[in-house]
Amino acid sequence: MTPSSPIKTLQTANGCFHYQDEGTGQALLLIHGSLCDLRYWRWQLPALAEHCRVIVPSLPHYWPQENVQTGFSVYQHARDMHHLLDALNIESAHVLGHSRGGAIAMQMALEQESKVRSLILADPGIRTPQPESHANFKHEALQAIQEGKIDEGLAVFIDAVSGENTWKRMVRWFRQMVRDNANTLVLQQKEPAFYFDEASFSALTLPVTLLGGSDSPAPFPQIISRLERILPQAQSHFISPASHGMNLALPHEFNQLIINHMTTV
């Protein structure tokens, strides 16, 4: 699946970035999650670009990039996104992160809050120090991928974060995108975890909208509930009927919540 908007390439001292850039006005940065890339936002870019300037990158290590030398972690990717905004001469942006991208968005705010105008966190993937009973799926998925059983491993991962049999129902372009990024699970398995830090989170003063799918599996509803208690300017919305891929299942509702957020902060 080829994106409808041209993919731009930016070579900087901090690496090469592939991204899409459409619209004018306030800047909105969209950060994808695990196994995804800039194609994940296919139903957001054209609609939101009618209201603001939308920056849609593929994180370093993800399609179409190869042989990236920088480290793979939430912390490195947060720095990468700041470097991209700097290179585009964007002083501050609204930042939307989905799943693992939500952790990256949060780290961006913790590192340089003045450059993050607001946060929109969609089922953010933020860990707690307690053992996660569901975490075995990551090991099972990675083992299958390393054994060459690519689709089997991807099905395990996607079904765990989005609900049983989600992989079977996925359309062709989504499956291809996930296959293109299968090897990033090897890197993700080794990255330092991004944990809840109540003291740091509660010190953030920027507006935050938390988005969840009505049918998203654990731990995402619990993460949103905890963040709403911790973050001083947070409010939550649940999109129904939808699971973890809420922006694909109900794009009009998802996009409208983003527009409402940006017009009220």
Automatic annotation (TrEMBL):
Keywords: Hydrolase
Entries under PANTHER family matching the protein: HYDROLASE, PUTATIVE (AFU_ORTHOLOGUE AFUA_2G14860)-RELATED, MONOACYLGLYCEROL LIPASE
Entry annotated with the keyword Hydrolase: yes
GO CC annotations on file: membrane
Residue ranges occupied by any AB hydrolase-1 domain in the UniProt entry: 27-245
Record keyword Heme present: no
Protein's UniProt name: Alpha/beta hydrolase
GO molecular function: hydrolase activity
